[in-house]
Amino acid sequence: MKSYLARKLVENLVLVCFRRLLVNDHSPLCRVPLITVFTKYDKLVEQVQFGNNLEFHKRNKHLDPETHNARLAEETRAKFQELCVRPFEEVVRSDIPHIAVSSKLQRDF
Questions:
Q1: What's the domain range around 7?
Q2: Which pLDDT score is estimated for 59?
Q3: What is the distance, to the nearest Å, from the Cα of residue 48 to the centroid of all Cα atoms in its chain?
Q4: Domain shared by 83 and 50, yes or no
Q5: 106: part of which helix (H) or strand (E)?
Q6: What is the per-residue pLDDT for 31?
Q7: Cα 92 from Cα 33, distance rounded (Å)
Q8: For each of the chain's 109 residues, which pLDDT tens digit applies?
């Protein structure tokens, strides 16, 4: 029972701090390090590469593999900014560190 109450207290404190963070409240109680991790970046790479009726493939099939991979990385980064980072920064702030991760090995993504 004690550990349950302690866990609930911590959960509530985290929720309060996160809500205050969303409205840019920098009270001493809520000054905690925050790092955001966007997972499943490999799924986004696949969506850019194979989604939208293979549009990427159709536009880039004439390229050599190195240029193809570079363009895929560039378009994936742009899509990541559009779908993940920009909306996050609009709600929170732009100075919160973030990273995209994947459990799959990727080329320079």
A1: 1-32
A2: 93
A3: 15
A4: yes
A5: none
A6: 61
A7: 14
A8: 557 777 777 777 777 766 666 656 566 655 666 677 888 889 999 999 998 889 998 999 999 999 999 999 999 999 999 988 888 787 776 677 777 777 776 555 4
Q: Which two tokens stand for residue 67?
A: 């240029």
Find all residues with CB under 8 Å of 39, minimum gap 6, and list them. 101, 102
Reported as type and span, the H/E element at residue 74 is helix 65-80
Both tokens assigned to 61: 């099939």
* Distance in angstroms (rounded) separating the CA atoms of residues 71 and 63: 9
Q: What are the phi and psi torsion angles at 40 (to 5°)? A: 65, 40
Amino acid at 10: V
Name the nearest CA neighbour of 22 among 83, 85, 96.
96
82 and 45: one domain? yes
Q: What beta strand segments (E) does the chain contain?
A: 36-38, 98-100
Do 27 and 49 fall into the same domain?
Answer: no
Residue 41 and residue 90 in one domain = yes
Question: Residue 81: which of 98, 66, 67, 106 has the closest Cα?
Answer: 98
